[in-house]
């Protein structure tokens, strides 16, 4: 049996929050791509689950992870957790963590092409 209507509605709400956050983030950093990862990407989320977003940004190599997160703290949306990676880091196939994120990632934004609605 499929997900309950309330769970599907919560998914729609959280995806919209993620998109709103990405739109605001693109005014602070040069967002190249953005993905949903975690339980919302895998489909094993609960109604109250947060949504995990990976932002791939250009020009953040000189910042450590904490500095990147602090850049976006003031614009964070409720229930949206996020990580910010440089293009180089996101393309590093040697990193097990990145490979695992990519395996479940659902692209919701690309600066270079249309992304289908999810």
Question: Can you describe this structure?
Answer:
Helix content is 39%, strand content 24%. With 118 residues, the chain is α+β, with helices and mostly antiparallel strands. The chain has a single domain, classed as 2-Layer Sandwich (Beta Polymerase, domain 2). It has a four-stranded mixed beta sheet.
Question: Which terms summarize this structure?
Answer:
Beta Polymerase, domain 2, alpha+beta, four-stranded mixed sheet, 118 residues, 24% strand, 4 strands
Instruction: Based on Cα principal axes, name the global outline.
Output: globular
Please name the CATH architecture.
Answer: 2-Layer Sandwich
Count of distinct structural domains: 1
The total of helices stands at 5
Number of strands: 4
Helix content: 25-40%
Largest sheet: 4 strands, mixed
At the fourth CATH level, what is the homologous superfamily?
A: Beta Polymerase, domain 2
Q: What fold name goes in the CATH topology slot?
A: Beta Polymerase, domain 2
């Amino acid at each position: 049996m499929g997900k309950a209507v309330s769970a599907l509605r919560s998914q729609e709400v959280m995806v919209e929050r993620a998109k709103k956050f990405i739109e605001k983030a693109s005014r602070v950093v040069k967002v190249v791509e953005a993905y949903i990862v975690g339980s919302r990407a895998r489909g094993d989320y609960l109604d109250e689950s947060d949504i995990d977003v990976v932002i791939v940004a250009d020009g953040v190599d000189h910042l450590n992870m904490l500095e990147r997160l602090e850049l976006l703290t003031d614009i964070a949306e409720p229930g949206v957790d996020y990580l910010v990676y440089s293009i180089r880091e996101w393309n590093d196939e040697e990193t097990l963590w990145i490979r695992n994120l990519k395996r479940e990632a659902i692209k919701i934004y690309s600066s270079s092409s249309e992304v289908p609605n999810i």
